Amino acid sequence: MALEQRSFQMNTIHEVHAPQTPKTHETQQPERRSRKLFSTGEKFLFVLFAAVLVLFSTMILHTQAQINDTNKEVQLINKEIDETVKQNTELSIQVSEKSTYEVIWNKAKELGLNLNEKNVKVVPGR
């Protein structure tokens, strides 16, 4: 009995301290709003940010690919320039070797030309 009396006293104490809510004839169901993790606007902003990020990443990769292609072309052109310079150097050495007086005189003798002092004309220098 003491146990029943104690539980009755506890119930009455809780009822006294409990806030009074107005009672209506309709039973109100508490509105439960399902709280979304992200709102529609936030989702849109995330998708927009991801799209911009993908776009810029693609642009950077495309630009790097173009730079790489241009660098290859520059290297090929530099290689061609080096080869041409080497050929020009070799040809200028050959010209200087073949334009000496002795080489020209020997070639003239092979072709049957001879030096005739009477046909030589001296042109004064300027």
Spans of at least 5 consecutive residues with low confidence: none
Biggest beta-sheet profile: none
- Gross morphology is rod-shaped
Helix/strand order: HHH
User: What would the average pLDDT be, to the nearest integer?
Assistant: 83
By DSSP (H or I, 4+ residues per run), the number of helices equals: 3
Describe the structure.
The protein is an all-alpha fold and 126 residues long. Helices cover 67% and strands 0% of the residues. The protein starts with a helix and ends in a 16-residue tail after the last helix.
Annotate the secondary structure layout.
Layout: H1 2-17, H2 40-98, H3 101-110
Compact description:
This protein is an all-alpha fold and 126 residues long. It has three helices and no strands. It starts with a helix and ends in a 16-residue tail after the last helix.
Keywords summarizing the entry:
3 helices, rod-shaped
